[in-house]
Amino acid sequence: MSIWFRSDFNEYIKSIGSGNMIEHLGIEIEEIGDDFIKGKMPVDHRTVQPAGLLHGGASVVLAESLGSLGANLVVDWNTHYCVGLDINANHVKSVKTGFVFGIAKPLHLGKRSQVWSIDITNEAGDRVCISRLTMAVIAK
User: Fold this and answer.
1) pLDDT digit string (tens) for 36-53?
2) Domain residues of the chain, as ranges?
3) Which of these, 23, 85, 88, 92, could form a disulfide with 134 (CB 3.0-4.6 Å)?
């Protein structure tokens, strides 16, 4: 059973994915399942730190982008919208090239808050970063 309130995924993603950090870092949405969102981000000159490794901040941007997208697809935009309250990340493996992939899944979908878990892996499927995002659900 799907958790999504909105079903116009492609239109919504196009409307939020240009002219901002999502576009600048090359983040792309690959799949939206019944209860998850999967995206990818390149490990290149835009997303690495001076030592040539994936920047932890770039991983956090991927995590927050996926979790925020999910949070806003769960609510009725006529009455509510979601904004980030808190995010944390544990960086557990370095990446130098290729792509990283994030999968965001809800842990809690409440009336006033949501909590999302975002698991980021490399192309081999090894975990790179574990993140948790708390979103505020705000009435318009």
Assistant:
1) 999 999 999 999 999 999
2) 9-139
3) 85
Kindly list the catalytic residues: 64
> For residue range 62-89, what is the model confidence (pLDDT) as tens digits?
999 999 999 999 999 899 999 999 999 9
Q: Contact, 131 vs 89, CB < 8 A?
A: yes
Whether the full predicted model's pTM is greater than 0.85, yes or no, is: yes
Per-residue burial over 30-53, b if 16 or more Cβ lie within 10 Å, else e, is eebeeebbbbbbbbeeebbeeeee
The CA-CA-CA angle for residues 76, 139, 17, to 5°, reads 55
DSSP lists the bridge partners of residue 106 as 116
Does domain 9-139 correspond to CATH entry 3.30.559.30? no
| Cα-based angle 106, 32, 77 (whole degrees, multiple of 5) | 70
